[in-house]
Amino acid sequence: MHTTDRRGGAGRILRDLDRPGPTHRPAGRRSLRRKLDHRSLAEAIDILGQPQVDLTVASATNAGQVTVRLSDVRPDGGSALITYGVLNLRLRDDPARLSPVQPGEPMEITVGLDMTGYRLGVGHRLRVSISSANFPLLTPPPVRSDLQVLPGEPRLTLPVFTGQDLTDPLSEPEAAAGAHVTTHRAASPRRTVSTDIATGLTTVTIEDDLGDVTFEDHGLRVAQQCREEYTVHPDDASRYEANISWRYQVGRDGAFNASVISGYRLTCDEDTFICRPSKRLVGMARRCSSESGTSRSHGWPPRSGGA
To answer: Which of 112, 255, 135, 132 is nearest to 204 (CA)?
Structure first.
C-alpha cells in the first residue's frame, strides 16, 4: 500500500497488503471474489482524496468488469464500507475510447475509487475486496466474463491527510423551521432477492414507499411510491432485464388531484440495449411511450440502480 501525503510531501510504504483473505466461490459459479487484508494499524490514518488500486487481470472472454471495495475492518471482525470503484475493462485505458479485451491476455488496470474522507482507527485493518460482478449496481457485460487476478504485486494508493486540524471558522448554521406535516402513511422501504429454480433467473426487487403526507402550511398532499426489479441469469447476459415504476400523487382537498405514473423497461441482446419508457398522467388525459436502442459495442450502462 502506497500512501500519499495530502500536504504534498513524500509518500510512505506500508507492506503486508498482499495476504489473501477468504475467497468465496459458490458451487457451480466461477465469478471472482477475493479479499486482501492489511495488518492492524498501530496509529490512526486519515484518508482524504481518491484511493486507487492497480491490478493485473485476465478475462476468459472479450469483455469484463471489475469492482473494488475498500473497507474498514474493526478489531471485533465487523466491517464497514469506506468507498468503492468500478471499471469496464473495454474502457480501461480511456473512458471515451474502446480498448479490445483479448481472452486470456494479461491487462494492467487501475481502478479509481470514489473520493472519500475517512478516519481509520488504531487496531483497525484495511480490506480490499475485488469482484468480477456487482449486480444489480452494474448491468452484466455482453457475455459472461470470468476474471483471474494474475500473480504480481497488487497496489493500493491511499491519499492520507497528515496536516493540522483546523478549528471551525464558521458560525453556527442557520436553518428554517421544519415543515408541519400530517403523515397518512409512513415511509417503508423493502428489499428482496428471489431465484426461480426452474429458469435460474435471480431478481432483486427494491420497493421504496416514500409515504403519504399533507403539508399543513399550504395544504398540499403528496404521496410517492417506487418499485424497481432487476433480473439476471448467471450464465446468459442477454436475459438481463430491468423494470422501473414510479408513482407520484399530488393534490389539495376539494381543489385538484393528479397522479403521474412513469417507468421504463430495459432489455437487451448481445449487441443492443432496448429501452421502453412510458408515462401516464391521471387527472390529465395524457399518455406517452417510446422505444429506443443503444449499442452494447461501447460497453454497457455503467450503473443500473442500487440495492
So the answer is: 135
